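Exam revision sheet. Question 4 asks you to relate a sequence to its structure. Input first:
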Amino acid sequence: MSRLQIGRRGLLRTAGAAAGLAAVPAGAASALPRTRAAGPVPQDPPPDRGPGEGKGPFGTLVIRGVNIVVGRDGKVRGPVDIVVRRDRITDILPAGQPGRALRPGRPPHGADHEIDATGMWALPGFVDEHAHTGEGGTPRTYAYKLWLAHGVTTVRGVSLGENADVVEDRRRAERHEIVAPRLVNYQTPGSGWSHGEVDSPERARAWTRWAARNGVDGIKFFGEGPYGRPEIAAAIEEAGRHGLGTTMHHSPPIYPQLNARETGRLGLGTVTHFYGHFEALLKRGREHPKPPDYDYRDEAARWREVAKVVRYTHAPGSRQWWDYLKEQRDNGVTFGPTMTVYLAGRDLKRARGLEWHPRFVMPSLWKFWEPSPKAHGSFYYDWNTADEVSWKRFYQQYLRLVHDYASLGGRIAGGTDPGFIYNLYGFANVQELEMLQEAGLRPVEAIEAMTWNTARTLAEPGGERAEYGLLEEGMGADIAVVPENPLEDLGTLYGTGVARLDKESGDIRRIGGVRWTVRGGVVYDAKKLLADVADMVAAQKEAGGCEGTDADWSTAGPCGGSPGADIPRPARPSDTAAPLPSGTG
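Answer key, structure tokens:
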């Protein structure tokens, strides 16, 4: 059966497995034993890079007349000429004075390729600390092209797929044999080996040693069995001996054993998402109260209750609040907030209606996003205003947590967890930048979080200095060139651009988007990459990919649909009065 012929339930099961969570009927999970999360779904390898897909690397590449965001310490320079030889920035040369005509005939001369970026801006290629591929049965190359089209040149997969597949993609990407960003390969304990469950400290150490020998760069922990605190502690310690990084999604089943403060004490590298932070700040107990019928595997119940934790925590600004943040900073823990992936919780209609969905979301991915009690993250089948208000209040404290950690000198890294909950590759990176600004970071600080901060987080476990994430001489040539000043509006980085008034004509026109992405010295036309993705979406639609789409849910998606519910009046009025809400008298 072809991928396009997979039924909707099959797509949901496939995508849920790729997320590391098996599909379980609501209400049934409490009777199930804790088992290791399902692994990624195997896929065909990405196609070879075609003759029209990127140019270079070159003996000498010059990017002329560009302003640059360096990537650290708030530094901005320009105009400059960036000189790249093969895959390395060798020189950044003054090109003139801001606001004045640039000097003609500037050296270096005889370059193999030049980009006229006069008046444009260059940023370090973005680095994503939390990435997946394959949701909704989409091919990895779909994600790779969307990332590069948005200037994302490095991703940490947690995971991107089966270990052997990712190791091969990483090798081919480094040789520029495929169109892809740099790939950093994290896997969950037990992934890829054939020696059984990681259900003891000894097995945790053994799998970690195996991982270090088999192309794994780091470990992604969940909070679900069969491993718990003893195994996590052993794996973190063993990872440190072999130069592997560590990150953790503190799923609620782990709370009786661990919260984010405690994993920080164990030496964990990154706390990804919000899980575990607020449990470390509870006034009492290890978990906040839940209704008697609460079932973690019931997606709607899980997402409805998770945001209520802030009702039971020490307040922002309290002594306990600052003590927690200072301890995490002193332990060298990186926070990877991934705030964009949860935005549907506070505004579902906006998340569903984002303007890039119709052209750039594959129908199979949109089907995975449809509301369902069986697909991880598709929790909004009974979502209501009270739920959104609860999530808005949660976000207030979560944004404050991110801001305050940064203000103490704690490291914030940029990550997106794309492919879930209307969170599309590449576009999600720009949303995360905007969320970091909402948290109180300046735009230049948000960019630094998703460049140098994340690059250091990925390099340091191996005892190395990152070779990308900065626009400085000697660094790797990973560069995003954009027509608009992103420090004035981060939203101009979206591939679809933004609408702006042309003051001379009085017309509204669309501006922005990345123009060129340089990855390891290879120059990609970002607009062409977006066109390639649009063609992939169109091809799936033409092959019947929209069949079976729920029309009432899919108005804003790639398949169109019903403009809304047409609810007829009842044939006769009801003779029963509607009950008043309890407590109204």
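Marking note for examiners. The CA atoms of residues 336 and 452 lie 13 Å apart.
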